[in-house]
Specification:
Blueprint: E1 6-10, H1 15-27, E2 30-37, H2 44-56, E3 59-64, H3 67-71, H4 98-112, E4 117-119, H5 135-149, E5 154-156, H6 164-173, H7 177-183, H8 200-221
Parallel strand pairs: 1-2, 1-4, 2-3, 4-5
Length: 222
């Protein structure tokens, strides 16, 4: 039974990972979170994640992954790069190998704290073509980590087949809709809550929320 087990959530303080945190708190006896400092352009992300963990009474771990900004220069780690997404190409916000490394280090941490369950908010529906958000990748890495570390890890991806509207629905079902809307940081420009409204992350988040609220309103009147 999961209620008797411990889990680690890969956590950024954004909409998706915070939804996963609320999901994990319903599923597991004990939950800890791990946030990575990889040179992201907005340090508010780290403080936002730490603040949410404190508010929810969850142990917070911060790991230094600054080498990623050296290996994979991109618009998430470089202040002098504009965020662009050309048709048919990966957005320049893509950080090469990020989810691979984050999940691998999360597994090392999880084993050290006596957990075998790892939760990540990756999603194949709205993944913008990111190869390390695919279900096949996560399943493959799960097998690799178990072989590499002789441990029985289970990587959970509660959002894998959900679009942003369905992710908002899940947040609502978890009783966390307002909290996630007001307290999380998804915006590439570092604006907490509804964000700047202009960057790709904010537009995707807002479109999903509006679609879900329309569906919810129709359900309430039917």
């Amino acid at each position: 039974m999961l209620q008797h087990e411990k889990a680690v959530v890969v956590f950024s303080g954004g909409q998706d990972s915070t939804t996963c945190l609320f999901w994990a708190l319903k599923q597991f006896r004990e939950v800890e979170v791990v946030t990575f400092n990889y040179g992201q352009r907005h340090k508010q992300e780290i403080e936002c994640a730490r603040g949410i963990a404190d508010e929810l009474g969850v142990k917070f771990h911060l790991l230094d992954m600054g080498l990623l900004s050296q290996l994979s220069p991109n618009a998430l780690t470089r202040h002098d790069m504009d965020i662009v997404h050309e048709d048919g190409e990966l957005p320049n916000t893509f950080v090469e190998g990020r989810n691979h490394l984050f999940l691998s280090f999360a597994a090392v941490l999880a084993k050290g704290v006596g957990a075998r369950h790892i939760i990540t908010g990756v999603c194949e529906t709205d993944f913008s073509g990111y190869p390390d958000c695919r279900d096949a990748f996560v399943k493959s890495l799960n097998v690799t980590l178990n072989l590499a570390m002789d441990h029985n890890f289970v990587i959970h991806t509660p959002l894998m087949w959900l679009d942003k509207a369905a992710t908002w629905q899940l947040a609502d079902e978890l009783g966390a809709f307002d909290y996630i809307r007001e307290r999380t940081l998804t915006c590439y420009n570092g604006v907490i809550g509804d964000g700047c409204g202009e960057c790709p992350a904010c537009k995707l988040r807002l479109a999903g929320m509006e679609a879900y609220l329309q569906t919810r309103a129709k359900g309430a009147t039917s």
